[in-house]
Amino acid sequence: MKSSRRSILKGSAGIAAVAGAPAIARGQARRGEQNTVRAVMHGDIPTFDPIWTTANMAAYHGNMVYDVLFGIDANFNPQPQMVGRHGVSDDKLTYTFELRDGLKWSDGSAVTAADCVASLRRWGARDGAGQIMLSKTADLSAKDDKTIVLRLKERWGLVYDALSKTSTPLCFMMPKKVAETDPFQKIDTTNGVVGSGPFTLNMAETKPGTQYVYEKNPHYVPRSEPASGIAGGKVVKLDRVIFVNMPEAQTAVSALQAGEIDFYETPPIELLPQLESDRNVRISVLNSLGQVGYIRLNYLHAPFNNVKARQAVQWAVNQKDHMAATFPNPKYARACGSFFTCGTPMESDVNMEWFTKGPDLNKARQLLRESGYDGKPIVLMQATNIEYMRNSAEILAKELRSAGFNVNLVPMDWSNVVQRRSVKSPPDQGGWNIFITSGGGTATAHPINLAAHAATGDKGWFGWPENALHEQLREKWAQAETLQERQAIARQIQDNAWGYVHHLYYGQWIQPAAHRANIRNLLPVPEVIPWWNVEKA
Amino acid sequence: MTAYIVRRLLATLPVMAIVAVCVFLLLHLSPGDPAAIIAGDNATPANIDMIRKRLGLDEPLWKQFLLWVGQLARGDLGQSMFWNTPVLSLVGQRYQPTLSLALTTLCVAITLAVTLGVLAAWRVATIVDRAVMGFAVLGFSVPVFVVGYLLIYVFAIQLKWLPVQGYTPIEEGFVPWLRNLVLPSLALGLAYVALIARITRATMLDVLAEDYIRTARAKGVATRTMLLRHALKNAAVPIVTVIGIGVALLIGGVVITETVFNIPGIGRLVVDAIARRDYPIIQGVIVLFSGIYVLVNLAVDLSYTFFDPRIRY
Questions:
Q1: What residues of chain B lie within 8 A of the CB of A190, using their CB?
Q2: What pLDDT, on a 0 to 100 scale, did the predictor assign at position B42?
Q3: Model confidence, pTM
Q4: Position A396 pLDDT exceeds 70
Q5: Do B21 and B145 belong together in one domain?
Q6: Can you tell me the distance from the alpha carbon of A206 to that of A244, in angstroms, rounded to the nearest whole number?
Q7: Residue B285: its chain A contacts at CB < 8 A?
Q8: Which CATH superfamily is domain A291-509 in?
Q9: Are B164 and A251 a contacting pair at CB < 8 A?
Q10: Cα B244 from chain centroid (whole Å)
């Protein structure tokens, strides 16, 4: 075939057009979404009812479409949010909250005190701190359309803490008709979600399990202060935020680099260097308190019904090894010997010899002998589908074997761990001795908010530790009125908790987020990611 | 023919019944507690028990089974425990991506595989034949997700020719729809190509050794006509059989491919449901897929009459 100059030029132009077409087409597709952020979060939204479940993703949804009476600011101090004026009586028993002017639900109707009273009751039926608050409540009612009155039977210094916390479930306000739903039934969202938050949920474009589309709420009235934590002015600067469910980490990282998504909450630590080298991607730490890893021991059965056996584990664990296994970059992980999260006001260094001088396997072996351990295998459940839990279980098994325990490491997925940890039968009859989990740094810093901090025996959280003094000190902490008092009591709690070994930690880590360079003004808040204030250049 | 079709359709009922029993028992007897997952990690045991009761998960197994079978008999696949949405509705939202992926994969795979198989048989024992067979071995050996990530790296990240992930409904444009399916179809189709190419080659070799092919050659029939009209049509029955059996491979591969390429199809729906122990979705989709598989094989059997007029039902 003869080729002419003309045909060569035509062919080259054609090749250039074909090569360029995909980029042009991609540009055209994205032009319509200039002010839309596509965000891949750590999981899927399991339900649109953030009171019914403690799953964090439900709280992320709640934070978009609902608002709170109080929210914590960047310094973790409770600040009024939906509330305008508020006060507490001299005897510290009566709290009065007056709603701000102009608050509306997304259907245009006014937010009333009656809505908030119903919402408080529903939340209080499900939340640990809320349950305590309501158990101390003599009366909770709407004085008028805008005023809520909470009258306590006895003083309780954690009202503002409980109402403003970011550990789940948050105290979201809902319309009265919705909030009157049985707390153990999910709210009906068949006809949409009505909230008073800065965004609304576009049900038509939302596909459960795939994507959740949030749009600016035209009825929302932000506060005038600058945004701080989940308090302050929630000014929405984006048109839409789309939560994309993308469980595959490598796909999400590739999509971020290709510009197909704008934000990825939990990039694997080992892939961070790949993202850090991309000039279009930024890495940000939004939750400086991160996560705290727990080792829960089963108090109901031998050997951990014996304090010496628990202390043996305490002296065997090396947090640095646990952290290095999953978080090789020391920038993002640390060992922490405090009972309450390191880097928080309740952190202390009391009764930490096991941490400052440990690990000490000889001491661990000695304690184990003193406990009378009979060599029976202990069941250590290993959640294989969550990397840090899988790695820590392996390391813990090795540490315990070195200390003289006979360890039966049982691999299973996290769903199985969740099911089996509720079993109170002996370990060799379907029960367990140890499981590994983690909790938010904010929740772990608070003696009341975290269910795992309770020591109420078999009425408490899995592991069922029991210690009367611990519970007395928690109650005393809740009654304390100043930071100094609370810190002093926290030290006593730690002293006692490390003595009887309430549970153990295997480290504290931070999970940085990754986002495109043109995403700005993300707010650093623990446990939730706010999307107001954020801009896309 | 009608009677045959009716008989075959009736025969699917016991198959579906067995699948229903097996999937129900496997799920409910396996460890995992959807109530605990729904409640979240901070929930107390009392809260979890309450949720379990509300979902009916504390009822005896036989009662839960009968309830589910009763729903199934009415064509109701149940409701997702997490989203309170009917399973059929969720499947309805997700079927298009899965169907699109399956059809494009089939088109790509069959076209490529049959071509390669015919080529290999025509040029048996040459470098062409060895290359095709080597490719077939590779296709079978390399896992779908590895192929997927390699394709993403080359075509999406480095060359920027195609998107990394996602799905565009066909209503939003044919080209965008197709662009999102190119890489997943190639990744998923590779093993399928390998399987069909080998069978095509083997059956073509048998047919090419027949007397009528020698006669056709002797009569001066063009090579293309000889291969496609005389040989391939007679080799079609085993090829079509393998395509039908390979649909099971396709269904399994769709699950992985949809996860790697973030395609919001039925495969992803099931994977997410398994992680959460959303029993109604898992049960409903598996029963549905088993029904589809049976129907596909019926279609394959009926297609024999097209390729071989001697076959009558």
A1: 84
A2: 66
A3: 0.85
A4: yes
A5: no
A6: 10
A7: none
A8: Dipeptide-binding Protein; Domain 3 (3.10.105.10)
A9: yes
A10: 10
